[in-house]
Every structure is written in C-alpha cells, then in structure tokens.
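We emphasize that the prediction below concerns an isolated chain of 195 residues; any contacts that depend on oligomerization or on bound cofactors are therefore not represented. The input was used exactly as deposited, without trimming of termini.
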Amino acid sequence: MSFTLATVLRTGGWCDITDVVRLAEQVATHCGEHRFVCLTDVERIPGVEVIPLVHSWPGWWSKIELFRGGLFTGPVLFLDLDTIVLADISDMAGGSFAMLRDFYTPQRLASGVMAWTDDAPSVIYDTFRENPETHMRLYARGGDQRFIRDHTPARALQDIHAGIYSYKVDCMNGVPADARLVCLHGEPKRVELAA
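Result of the prediction step, given as a token string:
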C-alpha cells in the first residue's frame, strides 16, 4: 500500500537533519511503496522531500502545519523524530484520525504518532491559525497534543495496531518481539535498537 510518512523538523531544538535522514532510512528499510516528507525550516535534506514550514510557530507547535489543507492525498502516518521503526508500519497509515495513546496516562492521546487520510483534520490548522498566540498561551500545559485532542475526535492507535511501544515503559529489559515502533518520548532522544 502506498502512503505518506510525514515528520517535522523545526531547527533550534534537540534534533537535526541527521535525525530526519535516520528515520527516512528506517522507513525505507521496512516499508514498501511510500512518500517520505519532512515539514521543515531547512532548505534541503539529502534524499528527503522537503515541505517548507510557512509559519514561525516555535517547537512542537510546528506540528500544527501538518494539517494545512492540500499537503497530502491518501493515507498519512506522522512520526516524531524520536521514534524508531523496526518493522513494516504501512498498515498504520490512514483511516479516521488516530493518535498515540499516552504511555503514562492512557486516557490521554499524544501527538508523537498520528494517522489520517487526506486533509481530514484540517480544522486543527484552520482553528489554530486564527489566533496562534492565544492558543499557545491557553495550551502551554499540554501543548500541541492537547490542542489537537480538543479540536478533532481521534481513536487510539494502540487500540487498532499492535507493535507500538515506549522505550522507557516497555523496552528497558529488551525490545518486545512484536515491536514495530518504539517511541522515545523524552530522554534519551537517541538510542540504537536492532530490528
């Protein structure tokens, strides 16, 4: 199945283009036909299709630009740059809007991994763009993921797909045999795991 794998790099934080290239290589190794794109303020990333960020929204708020209308067609899967791909994840893309279930607070959804089809959640971008400074202030606690949760209904990805794990919660004594995605979500930001 062809799908779009999207990620976001806003310079000035912990990650850089090497993290984008690493993720692109992991997806290429494990997935069939796909389009890999990075929304970023960097002009060029070797081997990666770049979509320019059009706003100067800081840090995680740049993820809101994923929902600009017209960026994607078909199934989409978003991964934060501190995610490790260990197996085929193409079936996780698309469907009605879904978000990662928070590993520490399972009743909450998180934005580290998200899936949708076409421009389904463009209301997220449209609403945020109307008054970004106010939204950033009101959602300072909970950030982009709380804003996204509050502005579109979402399912939990782990309720739909197996093989999504937290490095800190699930992998400290070894990576589960069925792991397809390992989310670092916090420190450490980079680890090497054997597929």
